Amino acid sequence: MPSLTTFRIDFDRPGATYTTGDTVTGKIVLDILREKKVRGLTLNAKGEARVHWSESESRSNTSQSRRTTEHTTYRNSEEYFQFKYNIVGTNKPNVQEQIPVGFHMYPFTFQLPNNIPSSFEHSFGRVRYTVKAVIDRPWKFNHECKAAFTVVSPLDLNENREKCIGVEDEATHKFCCFCLFFCINQGSVNLRVNVPSSGYVSGQSIISTVDYLNSSHTVSVTAITTKLERSVKFYASLPSKKVKFAESEIKSTKSSSLQASRGQVSSDILVPPTPPSNLQYCSIIDLDYKLSVYVHVSGLHCKIKKSYPLLIGTVPLYCQPSAPYLDETDLARMITGKEAASTRIPMPMPNAPYPVDGPPHDQAASSSFVPLNQPGISSTSYDIPPPSYEECVLAAATIRDHDESNYVFGANDRFAPKYPVFNYPPRSDMKR
């Protein structure tokens, strides 16, 4: 029967989620049935980023007249911090300590640096923060346990208001049918896309409208899909420089059974728990978000795609920029090109005034997150509670490194970073 029945790391903060500069505290928990002689008990805290993927390439072997497949593994890494503490003993070869029988808790504490990126997990790369405890035993295999925690690097949308301006985009797409050497005009469709803001936080809804006016008698608009998408770049340096691109859909809505000639489609996409844009302070992984609108048409014509960059932050805007609303009169003027300047609603600028009941940024948003013991901030003219912290859909199957054995306590556990989610009230419940 093993003498070590419990060996784990417990963080004092529920959910083990921290922001940059925070102090991390916790306990190493031990329960042993027999007295143990050890050189020491050490704690290792580490923050690092890694990228890793493999590619295959088929090549011709002229000497043997056959094709061979070569596999190349690309990788890169960077370290943000590594702390090592002696909890028990000194880990010197000739000095031993005794851990008596029973239940033990050893507290630990360390402070996170300020300039470190948010936690991030992906099959091609990650930014991960871990704590590892090691019982160094003389002439025996060491006992090890490991736990991961989340770090969220703040991204305040109020400090990036120039990137949060709403979208008002117009486009005309012409349909053509090629017959021999001639292009037969089949009409066109006019589109106008409105998105009130380009800056959001998790828990917030992205409300967008797409107005279309179809002048084609042979091609019809069959459906309109709106997608929140993620784009990631991974930069490898070994064995040579290489960039890996990965795009994925986070959420989407689709509207079909549309009117033939004209109509308006609205979409509402709730931003799920997700890491903030850019992964600031990480030089080997880039993270971006975009809102893509796909207009599906009949026949053999390709669908029309329009994409708009989004900024996902951790502190919401106090006063969101908004794009003007498009009515039927404006939509008709898109075709004729006759639109009086007096009818156009100006695009709000980043320096728009704060709402009457909204606090100034330098007074209410001096911290990275809304403190849990303070009332919620206002991102529009509505009061919202402070954020909760919820798991991201991107998770690691295990936190075991390639050089670790399968016998490290906790290393085979699944880990999903947690990010702040603002619990906005339903739109029907908002104060007018």
UniProtKB/TrEMBL annotation:
Keywords: Sensory transduction. One of its GO terms (biological process) is protein transport. One of its GO terms (cellular component) is cytoplasm. Residues 185-317 form the Arrestin C-terminal-like domain. Pfam families: Arrestin_C, Arrestin_N. InterPro entries: Arrestin-like_C (IPR014752), Arrestin-like_N (IPR011021), Arrestin_C-like (IPR011022), Arrestin_domain-protein (IPR050357), Ig_E-set (IPR014756). Belongs to the arrestin family. This is Arrestin domain-containing protein 3. It comes from Habropoda laboriosa.
